[in-house]
Write a structure and sequence with these properties.
Strand content: 5-15%
CATH class of the largest domain: Alpha Beta
Strand order of the largest sheet: 2-3-6-1-7
Helix content: 40-55%
Shape: globular
Order of helices and strands: HEHEHEHEEEHEHEHHEHHHHEEH
Largest sheet: 5 strands, parallel
Low-confidence stretches: 335-346
Number of helices: 13
Distance between the termini: 51 Å
Number of strands: 11
CATH architecture of the largest domain: 3-Layer(aba) Sandwich
Length: 346
């Protein structure tokens, strides 16, 4: 069970959240609404659950589809525990501890503007605009803390974004943190890892917690199957087994690049000129949003691809990597721009 004390990585952010949770308890006030920003798969949902545990409850999940209008939101809030309130929504017993319900919305940027407006009112005034028997009214809602997780905070309206008094930025995990997560998960699952296996997983996981756990689980399954053929293997995940699974089945190279990543880089190499994301999505048969939010950030961070106003281009580092890894045959060459092969950004 992950708590704020056992959460790995993002030390400064966790410290800030510890301060806020303790201050809320001491003041006997609601925890401020929290916006968690950062790459997908880095533990935003896990962190929301850890925050809820600080107040003795589990987060209630609200999705963009269940928050489209006031009727859906009214239904959601009516199902929320309302012990400790009078009929007007006032807290009964001012000295009783306040344990605000944690409400979690993943991909909060997908909320419609109407939903953002309605929720913004509820977050600030503890009341919700509703229509009852043809009349526009306000209904009180129980105190709650909204935790929103997003990879695209800029898509939130400014008034709604400003309702989140605590805004925390997630960073991907470094090598040491990745190894710590792998070790913790392996111990929890009773897995035996051979020498070099944690490093092999960490270097392919891009510093993303979700990938660390996913890869470890796949290797664990492979070890079980291998032990059926060779009982002496005793379910130990060895480095040769890990490399085979990554190479032959998961199709992930030792830099963490997937088949889709390589297909994009090879397409950029082939076309030479800047390429739009719609073209790349069609060529790779991948969703455009997946490319923009998950694939491109890593390729850009690694210096393999660059985004210009005219489109995506292959860098010299990307061309060199394709060549040295055997993905293309011709030797890399420097372009007239230095690092970037392609048209200059204007």
């Amino acid at each position: 069970m992950i708590t704020l004390d056992t959460f790995i990585g993002n030390t400064e952010m966790i410290q800030l959240l510890k301060i806020e949770t303790l201050a809320a308890k001491v003041r006997n006030k609601e925890l401020p609404h929290i916006l968690l920003k950062g790459p997908a798969g880095c533990g935003k949902t896990t962190l929301a659950e850890a925050i809820a545990r600080e107040f003795g409850n589990k987060p209630l999940t609200l999705t963009p589809n269940t928050a489209k209008n006031s009727d859906l939101l009214r239904k959601f809030f009516l199902n929320m525990p309302d012990d400790g309130y009078d009929e007007e929504g006032n807290i009964i017993g001012a000295h009783e501890p306040i344990n605000p319900q944690i409400v979690f919305i993943d991909e909060v940027h997908q909320l419609s503007l109407l939903a953002q407006e309605l929720l913004g009112i509820a977050m600030h005034d503890w009341r919700l605009p509703v229509t009852v028997e043809g009349r526009d009214e306000f209904e009180w809602v129980p105190r709650f803390t909204l935790i929103g997780a997003t990879t695209l905070p800029g898509k939130l309206s400014k008034p709604f974004r400003d309702r989140f008094k605590v805004q925390a930025l997630f960073e991907t995990y470094d090598q040491d943190e990745s190894l710590e997560i792998i070790g913790l998960h392996a111990r929890n699952e009773g897995l035996q890892l051979g020498e070099g296996v944690p490093e092999a997983i960490a270097t392919r996981s891009r510093g993303v917690g979700r990938l660390l756990v996913r890869f470890l689980d796949r290797l664990a399954s492979a070890a079980v199957v291998a032990s059926q053929v060779r009982p002496e293997a005793k379910n130990v995940i060895t480095l040769p087994l890990a490399n085979k699974v990554f190479t032959d089945f998961l199709k992930i190279d030792d830099r963490g690049l997937t088949k889709t990543d390589i297909k994009i880089l090879r397409q950029l190499h082939k076309m030479q000129d800047p390429v739009g994301v719609d073209t790349l999505a069609a060529v790779t048969n991948e969703d455009k949003s997946t490319l923009e939010n998950e694939v491109e950030p890593y390729l850009t961070q690694e210096g393999l691809m660059a985004r210009t106003k005219r489109g995506r281009v292959l860098t010299d580092e990307g061309r060199r990597y394709l060549h040295t890894s055997g993905y293309i045959k011709e030797a890399p060459s420097m372009g007239r721009m230095g690092r970037v092969i392609g048209a200059p950004e204007r």
